[in-house]
Design brief:
The chain is about 40% helix and about 15% strand. With about 375 residues, the chain is of the alpha/beta class. The protein folds into two domains: about 10-150 and about 295-370, Rossmann fold, CATH 3.40.50; about 150-275, Rossmann fold. Strand 1 (about 30-40), helix 2 (about 45-65) and strand 2 (about 75-80) form a beta-alpha-beta unit.
Amino acid sequence: MRIASLARTAAGLFAGLAAAFAAPGAQAQEPIRIGAFLAVTGPAAFLGDPEQKTLELYIEKLNAAGGVLGRKLALVSYDTAGDAEKARTFAKRLIEQDKVDVIVGGTTTGETMAVVPMVEQAEIPFISLAGAVVIVEPVKKWVFKTPHTDRMACEKIFADMTSRGARRIALISGSGGFDKSMRAQCLAAAKGRGIEIVADESYGPGDKDMTVQLTKIKNTAGVQAVLNAGFGEGPAIVTRNYRQLGIAAPLYQSHGVASKEYIKLSGAAAEGVRLPAAALLIAESLPDSDPQKKVVLAYKREYESRFNSEVSTFGGHAYDGLMLAVEAMKKAGTTEKTKVRDALQSIRGWMGTAGVFNLSPTDHMGLDLSAFRMLEVRKGAWTEVK
């Protein structure tokens, strides 16, 4: 369990003062409690760690600027290590014991979907940081998300593949919730884009070598491109094995590995790999005329200055989730949950690190395909494909 500087201790202090003095208006001075359950350690730590750091950084900044609605913010955060059962336990604690006003978290799809029934029953705004489209489709009354969906990733990748003349493709995917969801979305999206899936392989969470699966793909006649649906260490292993086998077809990865960590783990084998991602990864190279540059560059510089580590899109998703929650509270003029939920789903034209959010009662993500940039690894760095 990890709790930020103004977590339970601060919340308990406020509650104790209120009880001891029973001063008029004391209740209004209690902190706004932001709940989070994140995979800060474990296989998905490269996602959850920057999310945790981002929430801590920006809650500190918001408090230094006076808080929200005249109240300080308190972060109550728990480390799930990517375990769905722990996510359920911590979500229950956040709702019933910590009495949080909103939840920003759920690093992975598995964690997120495990707590959806709970937050729906409790009627508390929940902004997930996970990728699968199933989180928001069908729309759930209290559930929102900030990352682009796996379906959008499939569509963006297929558009790039076909522009390169590739229509016969192979899939290789992991066994996690996001991996399975993206594979299913890509299989469905392929039908409408004239894409033929000629090979479909998978690997387990503990696999350290994918040469068997990739050899089958290499030996499949007519493969023009390969897509790996997955996140974590698996895609880096796929990338290294791919180059070792000398497969000539272009390799694509999902936005689930959109960070410099993937390039580090893959080494020189990452050269030429393409994936869809937010503009955050190329913040400094964006033209000054790009309306997103100001937001992503400010976040990148603040995060990297504070933590002395490179920014990732995953921390950016946490920034978007927290700031959308704050925007909704300001818009509602209260932390009353129904009013915050209604305000959230009415936010339009809000610029975040993932793109422009246009939320509605029928769209609890609010991003379109233009929010994705197609990137390629060139000389060990992300470069936008023009």
